[in-house]
Amino acid sequence: TNLEFSVFTAEDIRKISVAKITLARSFDELGHPLRGGLYDPAMGPSNRGEICLTCARDELHCEGHFGHIEIDLSVYNPFFVRTLYNLLRISCMSCTRLLIHDNVKAVLELQLRLSDAGYIVEAEELDVYKGKMQAFPTEPISTEELNQYEELLRSEPYNKLGDTKLSTAIRSAIVNNTLKECVLKKCIHCHAAVQKVRMSDGKLAINWTKGDKKAFLVQKLNTTEVPEDQLTSSIEVMIARDCKMYLRRLFNIEGPTLQLLFPMIRKMSRDQPFP
């Protein structure tokens, strides 16, 4: 049996929530918890002798219930900041592509699919082939050699014997090697300079050159006329809204590869591809 983990969508959170937190205050003048505060009685008793408004149990038997806060602005999920950092480092903001040659990407996708299906030996075999493709990325791909692996996945989509801790370790190694190999200074697709991304204290920042910033603003503002005062070299914190806009464009182009590299987004909709 396959067990998969994912993240709650905004709709999932609203469905399981029993209280919408809207108040800055938690208690009234008499010390009683306020509805809509952080100690809303619907989420469970906070004192002895109280009864939960949701399950009608006392403080000893109520397991507690989820509430939620509606956030008007986009914010980073702290659990995925490093994932976003890695993703920004291996993509080009000028052409919105992953810094992977198409031939190498095809082999990488097959390698990850084999690993996910439990075929760890076959996935490791493709490492040699992928190395050749990285050395000569413009050479045509040998479909005959790869078809045997595709046929294996079609005939037997899941190998129970290969689904072990080792398969998880091998998959992690494939992803980590990809993240290291794809950190480039120049885009292999549009040949523009790749933005330099930094992460500090849970914040993402980009070291912009004038050329990088112009290419980014042309796409963001959908115009070729960018004010000169916005084209200065600088280090800027990337706010969550801009990051979300860019990642959605990237997902529209590189969705299949991203879902294999980062399984957490595999089941998320195209309208909200990143947490």
Automatic annotation (TrEMBL):
Q: What is its EC number?
A: 2.7.7.6
**Which Pfam family is one of those matched by this entry?**
RNA_pol_Rpb1_1
Molecular function in Gene Ontology:
DNA binding; DNA-directed RNA polymerase activity
Domain RNA polymerase Rpb1 residues, every copy: 2-218
Signal sequence coordinates: none
Catalytic class of the enzyme:
transferase
GO process terms (BP): DNA-templated transcription
Q: Which UniProt keywords apply?
A: DNA-directed RNA polymerase, Nucleotidyltransferase, Transcription, Transferase
User: What's in the GO CC field?
Assistant: RNA polymerase I complex
InterPro entries recorded for this chain?
Answer: DNA-dir_RpoC_beta_prime, RNA_pol_Rpb1_1, RNA_pol_Rpb1_clamp_domain
User: What SUPFAM superfamilies does this protein's entry cite?
Assistant: beta and beta-prime subunits of DNA dependent RNA-polymerase
In terms of PANTHER family, this protein maps to: DNA-DIRECTED RNA POLYMERASE, DNA-DIRECTED RNA POLYMERASE I SUBUNIT RPA1
**Homology family:** Belongs to the RNA polymerase beta' chain family.
- Name the record gives this protein: DNA-directed RNA polymerase
In its UniProt entry, the species of origin is given as Anopheles triannulatus
